[in-house]
Amino acid sequence: MKRNIAIIMGGFSSEYQISLLSGNNVYKYLSPKKYNVYRILINTDKWVCLDDTDNEYPVNKDDFSVVVNSKKITFDCVFNAIHGTPGEDGLMQSYFKLLNIPQTSCGYYQAALTFNKRDLLSVLKPYGIKAAEAYYLNKGDTIHEDLIVEKVGMPCFVKANKAGSSFGISKVYKKEQLAAAIDKAYSEDDEVIIESFLEGTEVSVGVITYKGKTKVLPITEIVSENDFFDYEAKYQGQSQEITPARISDRERENVVHYAKLAYEVLKMKGYTRSEFIIIDEIPYMLEMNTTPGLTDQSILPQQALADGIALSDLFESAIEEALKEK
Predict the structure, then answer these.
(1) Residue 237 has pLDDT above 70, yes or no
(2) Structurally, how many domains does the chain consist of?
(3) Which of 291, 290, 229 is nearest to 262 (CA)?
(4) 233 and 124: one domain?
(5) Is 171 in the same domain as 241?
(6) Could you tell me the CATH number of the domain that includes residue 279?
(7) CATH number of 66's domain
(8) Is the domain of 146 the same as that of 94?
(9) CA distance from start to end of the chain
């Protein structure tokens, strides 16, 4: 008997359109011979199931069911393709936990923790995982520019603490640029993290649960044509994403060790993609994404392909791992 699989996509954040691309790509690769696959669009206005001609059928939030052609459909598993809130910050994970419906991403605690860059890096610090020097602000705090410069130096990065796809991020070279950069970050979140500039090799490391085991995928080196790996570099072709990364064996061993350590220490499941800057063979973590991009061009799918994993196998493995929980 085929399982009913819901692919959730959309969300409430600036990553909405990227999530639609990811969700539709998963839909393309999941075999209709193995699963009955349904696309569920979630946004601030509606939760609806889309058929192949994009007709909409309302989702009953009480039990996450939908009626299509007079037939009530419930779901055996949810494939989470929502980047940002509410798919990457623990809200959807908590909802499905209460309904006892397996879902493919990490648990609600892990999602909330990793979505908060400050908290993630603080939790991992005792395990020897290094990060940039940082200064924190909450909306309404007095901005002491001299203290910021003293703590993190120049240049520095000003980031929204809870945002993805490089929304709300600026590279700041002068103290006079801080106020505008902080305002930009506040447009995405009410918390800001200001980090020292790390000059080294930027890499992205996919760690997943695949066929029951933790697997570190081939590492990707990020070479941005812009000043840093911003939105245009990520999504408009203004960067090189080189897999496998052109790093030494020692650098590879170190970053694999710490990426896998973070995954296992946090008791993760599903997909993660962690970003590091390598300086003098030492990896410094920037962040961990728990619902990374899943288009054909996205980094984690490219890493899977480089490891010989077809995208149909990558996506189906996530579903089968989630189904084991029930």
Answers:
(1) no
(2) 3
(3) 290
(4) yes
(5) no
(6) 3.30.470.20
(7) 3.40.50.20
(8) no
(9) 16
- Average pLDDT, rounded, for the chain: 93
The answer to whether 142 and 151 have CB atoms below 8 angstroms apart is no
**Residues 159-214: tens digit of each pLDDT:** 999 875 467 799 999 999 999 999 999 998 899 999 999 999 999 999 999 989 99
Residue 231: the pLDDT is: 47
- Span 118-137, mean pLDDT? 96
> pLDDT per residue over 53-103, tens digit each?
889 999 999 999 999 989 999 999 999 999 999 999 999 999 999 999 999
Domain that residue 13 falls in: 3-104
Q: Do residues 261 and 223 share a domain? A: yes
Strand 213-216 to strand 220-224: parallel, antiparallel, or no bridges (unpaired)? Answer: unpaired
Same domain, 125 and 269: yes
Q: How many CA atoms lie within 13 A of 236 on its CB side?
A: 8
Contacts of 27 (CB under 8 A, 6+ apart): 7, 37, 39
Q: pTM to 2 decimals?
A: 0.90
Residue 272 contacts residue 206 (beta carbons within 8 Å): yes
